[in-house]
Amino acid sequence: MSKIEEEKKKIEAKIDKKSFVQEFKEFALQGNVFDMAVGVVIGTAFSNIIKSFISDLIMPCVGLITAGKDFTQMKYVFGDGDGSAILYGDFIQNIVNFFIIAISIFLVVKLINAVRKPKPIEPPAPTDVDLLAEIRDLLKEQKA
What we know:
This protein has 4 helices and 2 strands, in the order ααββαα. The chain has helices at 3-28, 31-65, 88-115, 128-143, and strands spanning 76-77, 85-86. Strand 1 (76-77) and strand 2 form a beta hairpin. The longest helix is centred in the middle third of the chain and has 35 residues, at 31-65.
């Protein structure tokens, strides 16, 4: 292979890399990707707040109703207690977490939708036929 062909291949490889980088940059800088990333970060923080709310406030109150039992400690032990157990208390805890998080997110979305202004509906742009009909009518009025 000659040096010219080698240089040509290097340039083509740089162009391919550059176009890949440019495509990725265009994708990553789209509004939807940023919105999604912000949503994930806020959702993670919100989830931690809700988990603390449930484990520190809600579940102790539920524990009072269930004679002071901690849900996370509830389990069914198999056989002679060799360590095999079904931790159904954790499962109940996770179900309660899910429902409280779902209700909280529903309320936040409902609040955001109430605050957000509806976008004004723009009338559709006139078609070519509409514009030609308007020109025809104007010409008729000028002749009359």
